[in-house]
Amino acid sequence: MPQGLPRRIKLAFIAQALIASALLVLLLLVAGVLVREGMLGWIARNEATRFWNAQTTGVVDVVRGPALNSYFVQASAPVPAELSSAPALVPGINRVEYDRYYYVEDRPQGRFVLSIYTGLIDSTILWTMLGALLIAMGTSTVMAWLTYRMTKRMVTPVSWLANVVTLWDPRAPDTSAIAPRNLPPYSGSEVRKLTGALTGLADRVTDFVRRERDFTRDASHELRTPLTVIRVATDLMLADPGASDRQLRSLARVQRAGRDMEAVIDAFLILAREADVEPLSEEFDVREVVAHEVARVQPLLAGRPIELEVIDEGAPKLVAPPHVLAVMIGNLLGNAVRFTDSGRIELHLRPERIEVRDTGIGMAPEALIKAFDPFYRADPEREEGRGMGLSIVRRLGERFGWPVSLDSQPGKGTTAVIRFA
């Protein structure tokens, strides 16, 4: 589940605090090392200078203590027992152990050796670093928490608005939920402007959907009347024994066009009802719907070398508007007949799907991608069809939970599948 904006902001602040703490620890460690080395060098040089200055006055000043011990070795004198166990020392600072250093400085008078125990220095630096780290981390945590609280207060109205809009019905958004009186506290001017824009957009979308639905419904009803007249008139003229073959062919084309238009109008009427009420559903046998649509396309196969076969492998019974499935199968069958010059058209009826297979011209991969686009025609040279059939089939399938898919190869045919989810 995608994370909400407040949660992402919280995680960002936590990550920021952790990174800042890590960088602060690293910085303090580097600073501690530099301070330690600087103090060590300063103590050694300062003690050496003090010792040699004391030598010029004739006073031998040797330091003895828990942290500092100094030794003066004349050129011909033996090495003191305290230094006999130390490794070979060279001028400068010599590290013998982690917390034990020797500073050596040679002059004509002899060698000055300063033994430095850094435990006290290390403890001082460590406790100073821990104190500074705790203070810095506490301050950083408090500032991050305060900043997060302020940011969350500003972001909460936006998150609330996103959740409310997500619950909207796209066909009829409820804008009363984002009325100014219902906004959460601390909603700034930007949120109020956004709610106003969303309200205006929702109102325009609602008006547009209503106008489109009303136009589709009214236009479809108005077109039914002339189509009925055309269908009846062509039936009478086809029954006239004096009609010539040329007239019969023309009348048959008029009838096919009328049937195609009726199928489009039926689909528009079903889709126009989408925002109002569900079409009447009933239990029906899929094989009966298929048989009716096969009978409708039989006249289109007259005189053509095409074999149409229905293979029943367990056609189911569905509870749905039967006319919807009839429109979908009618469009798929019409496409199969239209784009098959010779060969076979098979309808495979199975419990979970219907397959319409043909041995027609098929489609190239680039045409298959656009096959469901409105008004797209894979073969513009053929005068039949308006490029709306597959688009209507897909919309009806999405509307009633019957997804439609296509598989096609150029020159080998096309297979359309309606799945009953």
Question: Overview of this structure, please?
Answer:
The structure is a single chain. By secondary structure, this protein is of the alpha+beta class. The chain folds into three domains: 137 residues, no CATH class; 110 residues, Helix Hairpins, CATH 1.10.287; 143 residues, Histidine kinase-like ATPase, C-terminal domain (Heat Shock Protein 90, 2-Layer Sandwich), CATH 3.30.565.10. Helices cover 54% and strands 17% of the residues. A five-stranded mixed sheet has the order 6-8-9-11-10. A four-stranded antiparallel sheet has the order 1-4-3-2. Strand 8 and strand 9 form a beta hairpin. It is elongated, with a radius of gyration of 46 Å. The two termini are 25 Å apart. The model has no long low-confidence stretch (mean pLDDT 80).
Give a brief outline of the structure.
With about 425 residues, this protein is an alpha+beta fold.
- Under the CATH scheme, which architecture of the largest domain would be assigned? 2-Layer Sandwich
Largest sheet: 5 strands, mixed
Beta fraction:
15-25%
The helix content, as a percent range, equals 40-55%
C-alpha-based Rg, rounded: 46 Å
Multimerization state: single chain
Placed side by side, the strands forming the largest sheet appear as 6-8-9-11-10
| Alpha-carbon distance between the two ends | 25 Å
Annotated CATH topology of the largest domain: Heat Shock Protein 90
Unreliable residue runs: none
